[in-house]
Specification:
The complex is a heterodimer of chains A (518) and B (372).
Chain A (H helix, E strand, L loop, with lengths): L1 H18 L10 H12 L5 E8 L4 E8 L5 H18 L6 H12 L5 E4 L2 H9 L2 E6 L5 E5 L28 H11 L5 E8 L5 E8 L5 H12 L9 H8 L11 E3 L2 H10 L2 E5 L5 E4 L11 H4 L2 H31 L6 H10 L7 H21 L2 H21 L5 H15 L4 H39 L1 E2 L2 E2 L47
Antiparallel strand pairs in A: 1-2, 2-4, 3-5, 4-5, 6-7, 7-9, 8-10, 9-10, 11-12
Chain B lengths: L12 H12 L3 H10 L7 H24 L6 H8 L2 H33 L6 H17 L2 H25 L17 H14 L6 H4 L9 H27 L1 H6 L3 H7 L11 H31 L5 H16 L5 H33 L10
């Protein structure tokens, strides 16, 4: 908090300094304005200044935009064409302000248009893909939304794949993302609250929520935190997440990210906030609790029995991913007596000739596994997969036959890695990977007792953690039994009639029983 | 509309209900059957367990009612209203000491058991200090979080205990019930004493009612909470008597853990289940210790308002560690336990009685919101 405060103060001072030159009012002379604009931007070659005259009186005017950010067709048809062609045949008033209003009222056929009167309006406008119209002897300008240029089309999600369910994923354009939300959630109560994030590069950010469902305190808290954001540029929603999360020391994610509109919509209807940032397909969902991070949208698309079993499997996978290497170390090094003699013998036989103690062996393999994972992600896709699989096989197989690791260790590590991947979010997988090392170190020192101590510590951390004021351990531990229907199991659709109680929604009934609220 | 009432530092009804069994069920239940059956013949122990249980229920009800009649007030502030400030400070201080020693005892017994069932070579100093550090981490967090931990861990230890009892049904020998009603009066008195010791710790209600959301419901809730350990104790006692017989039970150091020794997991994935039982039981001991530590911190914090909570924790933890390592061997640990138990029993009993009687005589106005 102190850090944020100091930074904010510092930034305010700085902003005063750099704000001097752009917050000035515009001149009335067209040439002065253009000169100043050119000076400010240092005459870049993608800045287009199209000067022309209007009407029979030949009044000087210009449109200014940045090439590549605008839709050229739109500018030609709706602005330039209209101004040049129509104005000739029409009688224009004498006074420049009246002409300006006339143009605003009748000539320009652009849907979104604003008046501006400062250099800052002009600059922010053209940098975000708008076209600005200047008229000589007039100190206001028209800022017209002509956003265009190259953008990616809507494609299937690559980070969160499902077998069944909508395939479309968010894209980099904020407008498209908002329309995706609107399209799948057609309610007049859907609210979009806009922000401009970034001191140097202004990025659009939208907080979406469903009014009448969400608890207004959450919206207030999210807004309060968003207003505290103070960065130069936000290239990804991860920047936003790290600014507004509750605890930056926690290994647990306090917000979910998704690129699937269906997941965002289901979060909205539960009474959560969705934060969309321009320039990234990943949107943030807040608040989030421990139970949420092991849920997948597919749980709801399959029938409840399958959904429940898969979810239980995922919980089991989470425990395996966390505990298995630690348990192996504890049982083999510290408590060999706890294993049945047959199993102990077969482990001992498989470890024969391995020069390292199990702890070193386990760390060696886990670190190799982490390296393989990281390498697999970084490499280009076609190479990456091959390298991942082949590297794993070759290293595992060669290491075993060279006698550096035991085959049973390879099985343990393989199982752990698979279990860690069997969760719906990549972020929580990283959390498990970090915590696994804690268990392994504790197990190598204190055995099973060490494991339980680390487990208790993780629990202590989780019960102390909050996400936007909501205890992270809800609904396990401020106990809300009614929310358990959609936690480890996923009850039949007809039984899921209530929104999560822990979100304290204003409208507790869910849409399932045909209640007309969403 | 009140927003996220469960997210603030207040605790609800469920939390205080679970806090009672979480506090009581710790290391005591592991040796309880031995302590009872070394004084009583046959299966007579259940009588004293029930009797002392009912007495404890009555006590906890009285305490909760006393504390609840001063809503949102700490022990020190309402004790000051009843019996002048200096006496209240002395009482609070004595409570703090009792809970500090209680925490120390718990930690030591845990270290002791771990040496019996889990490690042979790891020194008890390491085992205790690592446990103490985890407890410190918990106490350093928010108080409401401590109650959430109770709610998470208590079902786990309940399930494992019930499993152990259920599986042992196979080995139960009903002739071990005999003889009945053979204990003499002296035996009953001794049995009452030891069994009362195992119910100690419920005096946390004097301190925790202050943060309960609707204190007027608290007396009923803590009574319900109190029935859980009574049922558990009686079940564990019967299971030990039926499986081992009372003479064998009185000779086992930790008969409850030895119950787990009998279990064989089909398929033979693990042997020596008692080690796993003990490891899981660490969570129960953790709850007890953390709450005892927390109450000590709470009590001292109300006296020394200037010292920060974290500083208090850091001052107290070496003290607890020192106390925990004071007893040298098993017999000294048992003596330590007896001493703490007797001190806690008599002190809690006398203090509560004193406060209630003085409050009645002086007709202290309830809901007197003078200070917090």
């Amino acid at each position: 908090m102190i850090r944020r405060y100091m930074k904010k103060k510092h930034q305010e001072e700085k902003q005063e300094k750099c704000g001097q030159n752009i917050s000035v009012k515009l001149e009335s002379k067209l040439d002065d304005n253009i000169q100043q604009l050119k000076k400010l931007l240092d005459e870049p070659n993608d800045l287009v200044i199209r000067q022309f005259t209007i009407g029979a009186a030949n009044i000087n005017s210009a449109i200014i935009y940045i090439d590549g950010l605008i839709d050229r067709q739109l500018v030609q048809d709706s602005i330039l064409g209209n101004l040049q062609v129509k104005s000739v045949s029409m009688e224009l008033p004498k006074e420049s302000t009246a002409i300006f209003n006339e143009i605003y009222q009748t000539f320009i056929s652009i849907t979104s248009i604003e008046k501006g009167n400062s250099l800052a309006d002009v600059l922010n406008g053209i940098l975000s893909g708008k076209t600005v119209f200047f008229l000589d002897n007039e100190d206001s300008v028209l800022v017209m939304d002509t956003k265009g240029g190259e953008s990616r089309s809507i494609e299937p999600s690559t980070a969160e794949t499902v077998v069944r369910g909508p395939k479309a994923a968010f894209v980099e354009s904020l407008g498209t993302n908002l329309s995706l939300l609107r399209r799948s959630l057609q309610t007049p109560d859907l609210r979009f609250k806009s922000y401009q994030i970034g001191k140097r590069s202004k990025k659009g950010l939208v907080v979406a929520y469903v009014d009448g469902v969400i608890n207004s305190t959450i919206v207030k808290e999210v807004n309060r935190r968003l207003e505290s954001i103070d960065i130069d540029n936000a290239p990804e929603s991860g920047f936003i997440e790290q600014w507004i999360e509750d605890s930056f020391l926690s290994p647990f994610p306090q917000m979910n990210n998704t690129e699937r509109p269906d997941r965002a919509v289901s979060a909205l209807l539960q009474g959560k906030v969705v934060i969309l940032l321009d320039g990234t397909p990943f949107v943030l969902i807040a608040p989030v609790v421990l139970g949420d991070i092991l849920k997948s949208p597919e749980d709801y698309y399959e029938r409840w029995l399958i959904g429940s079993l898969l979810r239980m499997l995922r919980y089991l996978g989470a425990f395996i991913a966390l505990l298995l290497p630690g348990l192996y170390i504890a049982l083999v090094t510290i408590h060999p007596g706890l294993l049945p003699s047959d199993l102990a013998l077969s482990i001992a036989a498989s470890r024969e000739g391995v020069p390292f103690p199990p702890v070193v062996e386990a760390f060696l393999m886990v670190i190799t596994m982490e390296l393989l994972q990281e390498a697999g992600i970084r490499l280009p896709t076609p190479v990456g997969q091959t390298i991942g699989i082949v590297g794993g096989l070759v290293i595992g197989d060669a290491a075993v036959s060279a006698g550096i690791v035991s085959p049973i260790m390879v099985i343990i590590i393989g199982l752990t890695a698979i279990a860690a991947f069997a969760n719906p979010s990549f972020t929580i997988g990283i959390t498990f990977r970090i915590l696994r090392f804690g268990f392994m170190i504790a197990a190598s020192v204190l055995g099973l007792y060490g494991i339980i101590l680390v487990y208790i510590m993780i629990n202590i951390h989780v019960v102390n953690l909050k996400s936007f004021g909501i205890p992270y351990s809800t609904p396990f531990a401020p106990t809300m039994v009614s929310d358990w229907k959609d936690l480890v199991i996923r009850a039949p659709m007809t039984m899921l009639t209530k929104r999560p109680k822990f979100l304290a929604t204003e409208d507790s009934k869910s849409a399932n029983k045909g209640v007309k609220d969403s | 509309m009140k927003f996220f009432e469960y997210g603030n530092e207040k605790i609800g009804g469920k939390e205080i209900l679970i806090a009672i069994p979480s506090m009581l069920i710790g290391v005591g239940v592991l040796s309880l059957p031995r302590n009872i059956s070394s004084n009583m013949i046959g299966s007579d122990g259940w009588i004293v367990l029930l009797l002392t249980g009912v007495i404890s229920m009555l006590m906890v009800w009285l305490m909760a009612r006393l504390a609840a009649s001063f809503p949102n007030q700490h022990f020190l502030s309402y004790a000051s209203i009843i019996v002048s400030k200096p006496i209240a400070i002395v009482l609070t201080f004595l409570f703090a000491i009792s809970f500090i020693t209680f925490a120390a005892y718990d930690i030591r017994v845990l270290g002791h058991i771990s040496q019996q069932y889990l490690f042979d070579h790891t020194p008890v100093e390491i085992v205790t200090v690592s446990f103490l550090l985890v407890v410190v981490y918990a106490v350093a967090g928010s108080r409401a979080a401590l109650f959430r931990l109770n709610i998470i861990f208590f079902p786990i230890i309940t399930i494992i205990l019930l499993l152990v009892l259920l599986i042992n049904i196979k080995w139960m020998d009903w002739t071990n019930m005999l003889p009945v009603f053979q204990t003499d009066f002296n035996g009953y008195i001794k049995g009452m004493h030891t069994s009362l010791l195992s119910y100690m710790g419920f005096s946390i209600v004097l301190f925790y009612i202050a943060i309960v959301e609707r204190p007027e419901r608290a007396p009923k809730l803590v009574m319900i909470g109190m029935t859980i350990p009574i049922v558990f104790y009686v079940m564990v006692y019967f299971a030990c008597i039926l499986v081992f017989g009372y003479t064998a039970t009185s000779n086992l150091l930790f008969p409850t853990i030895d119950l787990a020794k009998r279990i064989e997991i089909p398929g033979g994935i693990f042997e020596r289940v008692e080690s796993f039982f003990f490891v899981v039981w660490t969570m129960g001991v953790f709850n007890t210790t953390a709450m005892a530590f927390d109450v000590a911190v709470l009590a001292l914090h109300s006296i020394f308002k200037r010292i920060k909570k974290m500083q208090l924790i850091l001052i107290l933890s070496p003290l607890i560690y020192y106390l925990a390592l004071l007893p040298r061997d098993t017999s000294q640990i048992v003596m330590f336990g007896e001493f703490i138990g007797s001190y806690l029993v008599s002190f809690t009993f006398l203090t509560t009685m004193l406060l209630i009687i003085v409050a009645k005589i002086r007709r202290v106005k309830h809901n007197d919101k003078t200070t917090i």
